[in-house]
Specification:
By secondary structure, the protein is of the alpha+beta class. It has helices spanning 2-23, 35-52, 121-137, 160-166, 168-171, 214-217, 224-233, 256-264, 269-276, 289-295, 335-349, 374-387, 402-410, 435-455, and strands at 56-60, 67-72, 80-86, 106-108, 111-113, 144-150, 175-178, 190-195, 197-206, 212-213, 298-306, 316-317, 320-329, 355-364, 367-368, 392-396, 414-417, 432-434. The protein contains 14 helices and 18 strands. Strand 4 (106-108) and strand 5 form a beta hairpin. Helix 1 packs across helix 14, helix 3 (121-137) packs across helix 14 (435-455) and helix 4 packs parallel to helix 13. The longest helix is centred in the N-terminal third of the chain and has 22 residues, at 2-23.
Length: 457
């Protein structure tokens, strides 16, 4: 490990400057105006993979943005690890809330601020530098490594499923390693062993054929915005439980061990409340905040609109009101089943005088790992050496639908080892990466390759 650490320490300034170069490329996938930057970011990564020492790297065209593929084979009999990540990033909006420009990487107080620092360019680049470290330091690579870095993760990985299915042999591996998750703190690394699934829909309520004068028609015509509000209010009861019939039928109850393990996690409810800036915390009765976000399903309104929303006043009774809604799901819930039941329920809740329509968007199934395999033991050892503390096994309330997709398509376990810290502002202004964690993370990943070589998968 000393040779690895010496190489990382000696090259740390260069590692940082190279990452800054990548972060300056505004590879925003949600806006077609940034297509040139998407191409530039992919080409940049391909070049850096080759510079790091991979034997082969290429851009593979899809119906959307290109995939960056790299491969380094040392021995066909050795374990093969596939590293997945993404080079596309979220938009910078709202621009005015950034302390420094989103695509001008800036160091402040031991952090690097820029869009993509932690989601996911910084974490992907740790893997590139870990590979370089092993090859250039003389430690060698005890495993075969493949890179698959996509450019559509922030828009739902629209072409990934087809790509995996069409390239099973090219992507064949013994384990999938993903760094797009978080640590518990700067001192406590984490292995993510579970993710919630998602079901996303838009609910539209239609009333009169056009907007009406609220004085002439108010009280005689059902207001779609008020009807929508009533439907949404009826979707949860006083205990915070979702009222959709059958919603909890497939939900696994927490085991005693899961409750014990969660209670051991160093988590402060008041710090969490202060971090999110809420006056108080609330949710399903009988569960802590961690239990609610890790083991329990949720329903949230992500946006709602209808009628006049400009400055001043306009006395209008709107014709249409709409809400975007997301369900976070846990094992063994199915997104399609949940949306089927949701659609039936909102039709039953709708008052006379309006019509409702549910438009479905993307979905993803929940995922739970088997942490007893050798590859997880390898991650434990590497993270403990790098950070001085054994990792904590956690779940994540978010959804990464591609994780179960990789496992089922490639028949290989996924291991989620991430390096973002609480409050890193993913998808928000002033996104940041801790520079000490960046350096330690490179060391942990370089060591992890060695551990997998020794233990197998």
């Amino acid at each position: 490990m000393s040779n690895l650490a010496d190489y990382i320490s000696g090259n740390a300034p260069r590692f940082l400057e190279e990452l800054k170069d990548w972060l300056r490329i505004a590879s925003v996938s949600t806006d077609g105006a940034h297509q040139p930057e998407i191409e530039q970011a992919a080409e940049w990564l391909k070049a850096r993979l080759l510079a790091a020492g991979v034997q082969h790297a290429e851009l593979i065209r899809t119906a959307g943005n290109p995939m960056v593929f790299g491969e380094h084979v040392v021995d066909p009999a050795a374990p093969t690890v596939l590293i997945y990540g993404h080079y596309d990033v979220q938009p910078e909006d709202p621009v005015e809330l950034w302390t420094s420009p989103a695509f001008q990487p800036t160091e402040r107080d031991g952090r690097l601020y820029a869009r993509g620092t932690i989601d996911d360019k910084g974490q992907v680049f740790m893997h590139v530098k870990a590979l370089e470290t092993r090859l250039a330091s003389g430690a060698g690579m005890p495993v075969n490594v493949k890179f698959l870095i996509e450019g559509e993760e922030e828009i739902g990985s629209e072409n990934l499923a087809d790509f995996l299915a069409q390239n099973r042999e090219k992507l064949s591996c013994d384990a999938v390693l993903i760094s797009d998750t978080a640590m518990l703190s700067k001192e406590i690394p984490a292995v993510t062993a579970g993710l919630r699934g998602i079901a996303y829909a838009e609910l539209e309520v239609r009333g009169p054929g056009k907007d009406l004068h609220s004085g002439h028609y108010g009280g005689a015509v059902v207001n779609p915005t008020m009807a929508l509000s009533a439907i949404i209010a009826a979707l949860k009861d006083a205990d915070g439980r979702i009222t959709v019939p059958g919603f909890y039928d497939s939900v696994r109850d927490m085991t005693d061990k899961e409750k014990q393990d969660t209670a051991l996690v160093p988590f402060d409810e008041e710090e969490f409340r202060a971090e999110v800036g809420a006056p108080a915390l609330n949710g399903e009765t009988g569960y802590s905040s961690l239990e609610r976000t890790w083991y329990r399903p949720a329903l949230d309104v992500n946006g709602i609109w209808g009628g006049f929303i400009g400055s001043g006043s306009k006395t209008v009774l709107p014709a249409v009101a709409t809400a975007k809604m997301s369900f976070r799901l846990v094992p063994d819930q199915d997104p399609d089943d949940v949306l089927d039941a949701f659609e039936r329920h909102v039709h039953a809740l709708a008052p006379e005088g309006v019509e409702v329509e549910v438009r479905r968007f993307h979905g993803g199934i929940p995922w739970v790992a088997d942490p007893g395999s050798p590859v997880f033991q390898a991650a434990d050892a590497a993270l403990e050496r790098a950070f001085g503390t054994a990792p904590v096994y956690v779940r994540d309330g978010g959804s990464i639908p591609i994780v179960p997709l990789f496992e089922t398509t490639l028949d290989a376990p996924a291991v989620l080892v991430g390096f973002s810290l609480p409050g890193s502002n993913l998808h928000a202004p002033d996104e940041w990466l801790d520079l000490e964690v960046y350096q330690k993370g490179i060391g942990a990943l370089a060591d992890l390759y060695g551990e997998i070589g020794e233990r197998g998968v």
